[in-house]
Known about the structure:
alpha/beta; seven-stranded mixed beta sheet; about 450 residues; Aspartate Aminotransferase, domain 1
Amino acid sequence: MVHDPEVVYRQTTPASRALHEKAVAVMPGGTTRTTTYFDPYPLYIDRGEGCRVWDADGTERIDMLGNYTAMILGHAHPKVVEAIHKQAARGTGFAAANPIEVQLATLLCERVPSLDAVRFCNSGTEATMFAMRLARAFTGRPKIARIEGGYHGTHDYAEVSTHPVVSEAGAPEAPIARPDSIGTPEWVLEQTVVLPLNKPDAAEAIIRREGGQLAAVILEPIIGAGGVIAATVEFLERLRTVTRELGILLIFDEVISFRVAPGGAQQLYGVTPDLTTLGKIIGGGLSVAAFGGRADVMELLDPRQEPNLAQGGTYNGNPLGMAAGLATMTELTPDVYEELNRKGARVAEHLSEVFASHQVPVQVNSVGSLFALHFTNTPVVDYRTMAAANKKMTRDLFLGLVNHGVLMAPRAMGALSTPMGEQDIQQFIDAVDAVATEQRSRWQSETERS
C-alpha cells in the first residue's frame, strides 16, 4: 500500500486549512514568515507547553523544532512566564535604558569568550547586518567573505550563496557569489567573497587573494539552517590564523550554535572570533538578538566618541525581551547543557539505527542538541554534499511526522528542549520508525532512481 502523507495531512488539519484560506486574503501566501510555509498549507499552532504544541484542531504534537531552535526551555516555562508577567506589569518599553539589559549583557559577556562588550537588537538578521557594518567601519574595507551554504538572515549582504544552484555556483574549491533572491543588488555580489566550508587550503587561498579588500569573514561554526554541518576545528583555526595575519575581522554567527555549550561553539571548539552574533535562545522566546566582541571594535558604537557608528532601534533592549532572556539564560547552567547534549547524542544514535534497519540511506548530522537528516549515501560536510540529498524523501518524512504527532522543520532539522524526557524521545523515534515503514516502497523507488 502506498502512503501519501499529504492526503492524510489534508484530512486531519481542517482548521489549519480554513485559517490559511482566510490568511491568503491578507498576507502573501497566508503567512508573515516564509519559513513557516509548506505545501499544501502551513500548520497553525494555537498553544504550547513544555515540549508539546497543539494545533488549531486541538491535535497534540511533540515539538522537535522549538521555533527553529529558539525555545531551548520549551514552551511556557514557569520561570520565563513569571519574568514576562512581572515585567509586563511594570511596563513593556521605554525611551530609556533599563536595568535588566545590563544584567543580560553582563551574563553574556561572562559566558562567551569573544564578548568584551555587546549590543542588543531584535533579530539575527539585524545582528549580522550590524556586525558586518561594524567590520567595514573598523577596517575601512568594503568586502565580506562568507561560507557557501551558510545563513545569516535576510538583509542584502546576507542574501548571497545560501542555497545556490550548484551548476551555477562555480567550482567546489572556488565558489562564486550567487544571489539568493530576486531584489538582491548587483553591488552585493561584487562585494561578497564566497568560501568553501571545510576546505582550509582553498579558503585560505581565496582570503589571501582578496585580503586587502576584506573587512570580515563571517561564518556559522555550525551551519544551522543549512543542515547542521559543523566546521572542522582545523578549518576554524586556519580562518583564525589567516584573518588575524591580514587584519580581517573573524565573525562567528552563533545565532543557532550558541545552544551547544554555555559559551557557544567558540567555547566548544576553542577558537575565539573578533565578533559574535547571537539570537534565538537569548530572548527566551521573545525577539532578542545581539552582537558583540573585541573592546576596540565595539568602541566604535560608543556615542561619547567621534566619529561613532549609530545603532538605533525602538525595541533594542526591550525590557520584556530582556526579562525573558535573563530568566532563560539563568536556567541554562553547565549541567543543563551537558544533559541536553547527552540527550541529543542519544537521539542521533537512535535515528541512525532506525534508518539503517529500514536500509534507507540517511546522514544524521548532529552537534549537541541540534540535528538534521539528509537522504543521501554521502557524508554531508558542506553545501555541495547537502544539496545532493533527496528532497522528495525529506518532504515525505516531514509530512509523515506531522501526521504521526511530531513537528520538525520541513528540511528535516530538529532541536531538543530541556523538558524532553525519555518518553518524549522514544515517541519521536517511534514516529520516525512508523513513517519509514509507511514510506519504504516510495523511498526504495526514489533511491533506485537517484
